[in-house]
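name: query_chain
kind: protein
chains: 1
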Amino acid sequence: MLDRIESPAREHAAGSLDPLFSPASIAVLGASADPLKIGGRPIKFLKAHGYGGTLLPVNPRGGEVQGLPALRSVAELPWGVDHAVVALPASAVLEAAQACADRGVKAMTVFSAGFAEVGPEGAAMQARLSALARESGMRIIGPNCMGVMNFRIGMIASFAFMVDLGLPRLGRTALVSQSGAFGGQALVMARRRGLPLGAWVTTGNECDVEMADCLAHFARDDETDVIMGYMEGCRSPDRLVHALALARERGKRVVMVKAGSSDVGRAAAQSHTGALAGNDRVFDSLFRQYGVHRADSIESFFDAAYAAGSGKRITEGRVGVFTVSGGVGVLMADVAEHEKLDMVPLPQPAQDELRAMLPLAAVRNPVDGTAQIWSDMALFRRFLRTMLREGRYEAVVFFLTAMPYSPPLQQPLAEIFADLRREFPEPALVLSMLAPQALQDELAEHGYLMIEDASRAIRALSALRALSRPSPGPADLASLPRVPHFPALEAANEHAAKEVLARVGIPVLPERTVADPDAACAAAWELGYPVALKVLSPDIVHKSEAGGVALDIADEAGLREAWAAMRERVAQAAPRARIDGMLLAPMAPDGVEMILGVQRDPVFGPVVMVGMGGIYAELLDDVSLRIAPVDAEGAMRMVRELKAFPLLDGARGRPRADLDALVRAIVRLSVFAHRHADRIASIDINPFRVFEAGRGAAALDAVLLTREPEDGGHA
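structure:
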């Protein structure tokens, strides 16, 4: 036995995942002669699927394992094995891992369960495994995972029995799953749906290698075009953001299922922002920023990845539909409208040409050839060819029912669609039909997407359009404004919060704090009527609910009356609240009321939010979020994502709002939150009134809650 493995592969970079996915040598610890056991399956699979590297079974009994000589211990391994597969009891894993590290093993896959998923003792063992990975530089995937596969080289380092059912077709899509159970199901689904895969991995407990690391690996991989991810949580947000940025930079299409939405932060700080900026929405925002398509079901997850794997792009959303069923054509048009795809009609000369061929056909779009078209395959060919030539669609779906099962039609259909694909190589072409598997396989080889459900076919094209459009990516840090740093950040009440925001560059109205009615009247004379009066208290976050707001006070008599009535209402609503006085401000001009906010996300830190504000903030639930900081382009995208954006943009004769002022405020708020990420718990600016274009905006109310970096938050 050689003392060192001589690898024909390239030298692996320190810390890279190449030894996991492209190993020249694999040791199997706990190797079994029984191919049905967990320690036997990897050897069986590696031999059966043509793995060409060195395979080294390790079993304390020695002898022979599935026709291969077995080593008795890790100490007998040659120095520098690329990849060790561990199929041992949990109690034996740490010792084996240390032995592998001492022997220069570059990477490990640990199948063994019994770690952090079972309790404190298992968590302690897993922590020691993580420490070993950090100290030795040996990359470890798992524990409690189903393994790793690189189909291109026959590297099946897994015990998944699903491999016995058959592997998917070879392709340029990689699948990464945090769940082993889902990973196994996905393997079967990929084969059944005709989704070609190049690699597959489940990450398990992620003691070292995380999902984000695998995403980054495939982003760098020249043989991967599409990355599928099944995510349940994120351990290292910086790694995830880096991986998604790398995938975006390298033009990789990422399709993600994110399980486990939560309302973490809903209870935080009693704020509107905390209620609106749930953790799951932050992931939505991150995915949108980096061009990741988030699927809302397992079905759409596979359809989107399948469409993305075609390599086609849909930027404008111009889609044509050919059907032999008028009703299904209408259904497809309904789905296309919902997905905001453009079912642009065929040009009139093309419609006239098709109607001349088949007078009873519907020729606008959807194009319905009716059942008559099956009677003349030469006509069928001319009809489709004309539609493709004249429509200039980015994608076309052909709904053919189950007619392709008819034996006389199968060969003509195969020839017609092969010829059409050769003549029209650019558009994405989808066949929605029931047909013999051989015919489906033949047409798939010609580049057709095979999606039997017509509605699914349209939604897959919608996903492909989303994946084809440019994404904004990270903020342009060089363009961000400088904001002051506050060594001691405190904001006991609304006035103090506004003073901080004003120094940051967020506009506020001139206002005065007053202790008694006489001071209020003097301030009102200085500011000018009409005025607003609000209670100041560190204990009352939502003043209007406590009766602590009076608006449009026109004169001194009205002000004194409002003062007395407010003190009585607040005393009844919040008898224990500390009162710091009152806040007097001029009434603001009319405008659109927005909410600006920051919430500290438990994973990603400060998240900035914009939405429709005032008393309807939570009722309307129309918000857009980004991880701070954001630049001007990102802030404008946030505003345009709002359903209520037309209200800002001058819909139905309304004056156009000052979008520039709104964008500036979002950017400055995000930079402020980012700079004080360790101190800010939440910020609510509600309402933030945006005046008519050219007249600016102003924060009419504000709450700023701070936190101790380690001990929790305080106001």
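note: The radius of gyration is 32 Å.
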